[in-house]
Amino acid sequence: MHTQLLIVGSGPAGYTAAIYAGRAGLQPTILEGIQPGGQLTITTEVENFPGFPQGVDANELMLNMRQQAERFGAVIRSESVIRTDFSQRPYRLWTDTDTELTADSVIIATGASAKYLGLADEQKYMGQGVSACATCDGFFYRKKVVAVVGGGDTACEEALYLAGLAAKVYMIVRKPFLRASQIMQQRVMDHPSIEILFETNTLGLYGENGVEGAHLIFKKGEQGERTYDLPIDGFFLAIGHRPNSEVFRPWVSVDDAGYIQTEGDTPRTGIAGIYAAGDVADPHYRQAVVAAGSGAKAAIEAEKYLKTL
Ligand code: NDP
User: Fold this and answer.
1) Range with the lowest mean pLDDT among 25-29, 40-44, 64-68?
2) Which tens digits make up the pLDDT trace of 132-186?
3) Whole-angstrom Cα distance, residue 73 to residue 13?
4) Of 59, 65, 118, 250, which has the fewest Cβ atoms less than 10 A away?
């Protein structure tokens, strides 16, 4: 099957690109991937997307974007890309249904996935006290007690953000030191509401109605090992994100963490007609509204490019 414009991914970047491209008469095809609607669908309410003064249910927001894309002619397929060949146009992509697609232009909007510890309790309490996004969910923990897992810059940033809302923030750090930059380390250490629990790992979570605490272990496997329970209302993961760029890496350039590198503040990847938008190309902001904006940019670029063919 051939399409002028193929959009890979169905988060805010992918759908916004589809809305713009659809309105430009390009009839884009979207491959929605294994998590239709993207990362937002694992949160509950979105209160910082402009246009919704009372907030909006995250799934409803994504469904609205989907319908808006379909209204302008986008064709949505429930497939994921497993292999690509961008060596020449038309660009070739293979999906998990053994389908080969060709496209004159491709917008990569596959997002990033937060890393989790891999505990069964993370799944159990997802959206009920477990979150991987303080900016998204911190507001629900005003005056409450929360824990942030991780010792990097993201964890420090999330802890500082949460400290502005919550009564108390614990940082659960597996090493005896933080990995974050000096300035971020200083800020968390100086903050009166943040307490760092070094050499500590999480064994599990507990609670009747959502998270009420974490089972922790201090100095695991060492002398002085101790397990104890820490009462908390929220458990925030900040141990890094993994951009979903693997299948495109043979062709586009990525940074050390795997984020697709684009030219300046454009979504251009360096290959004519191939663009990257949203979190897969954004190690910094990771916000739905920013992703939506970059999806719009990518569609505008694709439209201009397709006119030259
Ligand atoms: P990092 O990889 O820098 O840090 C991840 C943290 O999570 C580390 O403390 C790591 O511990 C910990 N961790 C990883 N896996 C586990 C696990 N299974 N159990 C417990 N702890 C775990 O990721 P970040 O997202 O913090 O940062 C990514 C990049 O983005 C960095 O280069 C960072 O500097 C940059 N960044 C910069 C910001 C800024 O400048 N304002 C803001 C945010 C990010 P350990 O140290 O033991 O490996």
Assistant:
1) 40-44
2) 989 889 999 999 999 999 999 889 999 999 999 999 999 999 999 999 999 999 9
3) 17
4) 118
pTM of the model: 0.78
Classified by CATH at the fold level, domain 120-237 comes out as: FAD/NAD(P)-binding domain (3.50.50)
Task: Identify whether 137 is a catalytic site residue.
Answer: yes
Pocket test for ligand 1, best of 160, 173, 179 (most atoms within 8 A of CB): 179
- Dihedral-angle region of residue 85 (phi above 0 means left; psi in -120 to 50 means alpha; beta otherwise): beta
CATH dotted code for 2-114+241-307? 3.50.50.60
Residue nearest (by alpha carbon) to ligand 1 atom 46:
179
Q: Which residues line ligand 1 (CB under 6 A)?
A: 117, 149-155, 157, 174-175, 179, 239-240, 283
| Domain boundaries along the sequence of the chain | 2-114+241-307, 120-237
Burial class (CB in 10 A: 0-12, 13-18, 19+), 139: middle
* 156 assigned to active site: no
Nearest-atom number in ligand 1 for the CA of 117 is 18
